[in-house]
């Protein structure tokens, strides 16, 4: 599967000259491409202790760990992990030349 880099295009500095407040560098990748795994998902995956911030992960996409939280609570430990997807690839389940019309229509009607 080919992965496509989802980095946002850079704006020209001249676009920020008339900004009313100090220009802050925008995120490199869209916020909507972040994954936040909560305690239940992390317990299933058993990866929390294995990953640190800036670790690269493979999820049929490439991402970077941008946040790792662990809080001790009265009722136990609360953990979460946030991953920014940097590149992603999307392909059909079967190549189109191997998909017959009936199979395609059945999958399409499930939506």
Q: Which helices and strands, and how do they pair?
A:
Blueprint: E1 4-5, E2 34-37, H1 39-45, E3 56-58, E4 61-73, E5 76-88, H2 101-109
Antiparallel strand pairs: 1-5, 2-5, 3-4, 4-5
Spatial extent as radius of gyration: 20 Å
Question: What is the terminal-to-terminal distance?
Answer: 24 Å
The portion of residues assigned to helices is: 10-25%
| Helix count, DSSP H or I runs of 4 or more residues | 2
Provide structural commentary.
The chain contains 2 helices and 5 strands; from the N terminus they run ββαβββα. With 111 residues, the protein is an alpha+beta fold. It has one domain. Strands 1, 2, 3, 4 and 5 form a 5-stranded antiparallel β-sheet that branches. The model has no long low-confidence stretch (mean pLDDT 78).
Keywords, please?
111 residues, 2 helices, alpha+beta, extended, five-stranded antiparallel beta sheet, 5 strands
Structure in a nutshell:
By secondary structure, the chain is of the alpha+beta class.
